Amino acid sequence: MTFMDMNKQPSCSTFFSAVIVAVTMLASATVAAESTRESMRLVYAALSELLPAAFNESSFESESSTERLASALEVLENSAEALVEHVGESPTEVSAEFMGLARSFENNVALLRQSFDYHRYNEFNYLLLDLTHNCVSCHSRLPADSGPPFATDLVEQVDDEFYTDVDRAQLLFAIRRFDEALSTLESIIRDLDIEPIELELDGVLFDYLANGITVTRDVERIQKTLADLKERNDLPYYMSRYAGLWSEHLDALQADLIEVPNLSKARDLFRQSLNLSPIPSSQVRMVYDLVVSAMLRRLLEQQTLQGVDLAEVYWMLGVISIRTVNPRPGVPHTELLLESAIRAAPGSEYARLAYALLEEYNRVSFAGIPTAELPEPVLNLHELAKLAGVSK
Fold it and tell me: How many domains does one find in the chain?
């Protein structure tokens, strides 16, 4: 990923998310000369230094800030290095997806360092904000009572730096204050001064459903919010229809959020979702996708799946990722899921399906960029093609 890849939507809303996920992953890593707890504390201190610079060009360019920002970046660099080393020491205990996240984190911290060293504020701002966009969705697959014990007051420290309530909600999700985050989004959804289309374009509805369904699993609360949304007189018909169908789907799938998941049921629901709309990008599938994703993630946590079954799970998650999350170059989550499918069962039908989807997804995501300017990971898929059994 390069700074010039601006056709992928940047956002100002989730600076902390992936770094916090990386810190969570670091919880099991050994960091020389300090405990994991101390390492996490240092990372959060680094974040509180970097965030204002991302939103304030004068702060970024201030000579008095240079040393502080350089030290904060050094903390992130050390954390990224420790994470990659930890993954490398236990390759049989982690998935290809996890390995990819570790490498991606390290690569993007390196890009941040480069933009800082060359005093490129716009690049620094873009990379810092876009670096972490997908990792709020990573937190969405963890129980609500898990996560790092730090940063409970971080939102108060930086709140004035945030542009909107949407930004504040994203930070609350990232530091796992889910009830407050959902309450913030509920206020936005009910605010008649906010155009309904903004709820869709800003990802408010998706973030609300994703965290409400997969983390808190408070179906009653979600249903009440959907009913309030549907009552808005300014709501376009298609959005009103979505709200009604999402409510119906929640009722139908509520038990699947609680029961012990099984692959056969998850597969059936995934196939049912394909018939909900003739439009590939339709959001009518959102509740189905989120429930199936939660089921598949819980199956992965059991660590009992192998071979073709494991590849199928990663392939379905990759498809759901494409349908529910806009491309975010900072953390290539979709790509990692599809790569994991290929590596889980080389030469299988799901490996070939995953490779075809990965190749197409990469090309479409970088549409308009000349082939000569495409990032190396987009072009260099030779190893994966060989594993999938499609190399020429």
Answer: 2
